[in-house]
Amino acid sequence: MLGGLLKNSSFLSWVDNKKHIPLQKINNSFKLNIIYLAIMVNYKDLGLVNTREMFAKAVDGGYAIPAFNFNNMEQLQAIIKACAETKSPVILQVSSGARKYANQTLLRYMAEGAVEYAKELGWEHPQICLHLDHGDTFELCKSCVDFGFSSVMIDGSSLPYEENIALTKKVVEYAHQFDVTVEAELGVLAGVEDDVVAEESHYTKPEEVIDFATRSGCDSLAISIGTSHGAYKFKPEQCTRDPQTGRLVPPPLAFDVLAEIEKKLPGFPIVLHGSSSVPQEYVDIINANGGNMPDAVGVPEEQLRRAAKSAVCKINIDSDSRLAFTAAVRKVLAEKPGEFDPRKYCGPARDEMVKLYKHKIIEVLGSDGKAE
Ligand SMILES: [Zn+2]
């Protein structure tokens, strides 16, 4: 039976069966466990929410929740501002790359700050979820659950089917004890996203989804129907070219596979990764100001709009905000080569991202006004 940690202003001691044991007298590994327990935090204490209710409403309402990745303050400010102004629920995603870049602890406190910032902006009941994107081990997911994340993804999609189920189930059993929701993945997306790399995509097999969802107990399922990670989602040979503009036209998403999955799992929340559209205007600004991104191509917004109206209730967008940020920074630096104050180029980059996020929320996902 565990005791409890007694804190007062001058010392810490472990209280067990009414005996106070000073921390100095406890062995080191037990001490570490005690300290771990003392600093664990549940997301509810940070003002965050899990995805359960968000997804139930999105499935019923025929819209999708935006899942935006963030790595720095400007991105987070832009996401919160856009969501507060449109009253859109939002999933803040932290990838393993973001954890390495910005530090998991810092990101968690930033998310906590984001809730307060949202209120300051006049958003009375912010619906903000903090989500681990592409967790690849039980230990990583556990650590996120223990330190304030309200949702985690366990990506076992590269494992054999039974191993994917077993790993997902283990994460679900742990996370559900703390009311943290779990996203799993079945099928493989092509492309590159931080540490997630796959050459070829393999569509999710509709005949597997009932068994997978039932046995793993996951709360939502990321599927592969032709979306792809990164800013180069399709190779030129997979696309056709618009004869007028010379630009690549990507192949359509496999809506027949999505419909089959929806039929097998009616009302079950489906997630689309790799769903940036790679706006041509940003690619053009980047290329016109010293960049080099030939043949960058994404998923047309029209197709995402269609997906958002179906069982798809979470759409992941990362590359588009990177492009908006980079385009704005390149433009400022090209026009004002003497500029050296980061606020003078990160500020315009932030404004551009606010515009992008609002556009996605209102024009593509339909999530505006869903979290008053
Ligand atoms: Zn992804």
Question: What tags apply to this protein structure?
Answer:
372 residues, alpha/beta, eight-stranded parallel beta barrel, binds zinc ion
Molecular structure report:
This protein has about 375 residues and is of the alpha/beta class. The chain contains 13 helices and 16 strands. It binds zinc ion.
Can you give the helix content as a percent range? Answer: 40-55%
Which structural class best describes the helix and strand composition?
alpha/beta
Number-wise, the strands total 16
CA-based gyration radius: 22 Å
Strand arrangement within the widest β-sheet reads 4-5-6-7-8-11-15-16
Report mean pLDDT, rounded to a whole number. 91
Give the end-to-end Cα distance, rounded to a whole number of Å.
44 Å
- Major β-sheet, in short? 8 strands, parallel, barrel
Q: Determine the strand fraction and express it as a percent band.
A: 15-25%
Low-confidence stretches: none
Molecules bound to protein: zinc ion
> Helix count?
13
Order of helices and strands: EEEHHEHEHHEHEHEEEHEEEEHEHHEHH
What form results from the Cα inertia axes? globular
